[in-house]
Amino acid sequence: MADERPPDLWTIDDVAAYLGILPSSARGALSRMGVRAHSFRAHPTSHRAQALYDPEQVKAANAARPGRGHRSDLDKETE
């Protein structure tokens, strides 16, 4: 069966490859970054719902991440 997803949307495997992590970890990372699925489609073999993500939203959310070792407690000025 051919891949019927729109070419401008990513599966969780595409997201994981972009982020350099496992697909099982990508779901949690997207959740923490606040990225929600753009739409759903039936998986080609299992026919279960498969989330599709907007690549621009994934890229923007990843770019906005603070990075390893970031001290978020120092971001806010205390009065």
Write the layout of secondary structure elements.
Layout (H helix, E strand, L loop, with lengths): L11 H8 L3 H11 L5 E4 L6 E4 L2 H9 L16
Antiparallel strand pairs: 1-2
Helix pairs in contact: 1-2
Compute the number of helices. 3
How widely separated are the two ends?
Answer: 61 Å
Largest sheet: 2 strands, antiparallel
* Largest beta sheet: strand ordering: 1-2
Strand content: 5-15%
User: Could you list the spans in which at least 5 consecutive residues all have pLDDT below 50?
Assistant: none
Q: Measured on Cα atoms, how large is the radius of gyration?
A: 16 Å
Helix and strand composition category: alpha+beta
**N-to-C series of helices and strands:** HHEEH
Overall body shape:
elongated
Question: Can you count the beta strands?
Answer: 2
On the 0 to 100 scale, the average pLDDT is 87
**Portion of residues within helices:** 25-40%
Q: What's this, in brief?
A:
The protein is an alpha+beta fold and 79 residues long. The protein is built from 3 helices and 2 strands; from the N terminus they run ααββα. Helices cover 35% and strands 10% of the residues.
Please characterize this protein's 3D structure.
This protein is α+β, with helices and mostly antiparallel strands. Helices cover 35% and strands 10% of the residues. It has helices at residues 12-19, 23-33, 55-63; strands spanning 39-42, 49-52. A two-stranded antiparallel sheet has the order 1-2. α1 (12-19) crosses α2. The longest helix is centred in the middle third of the chain and has 11 residues, at 23-33. The termini are far apart. The model has no long low-confidence stretch (mean pLDDT 87).
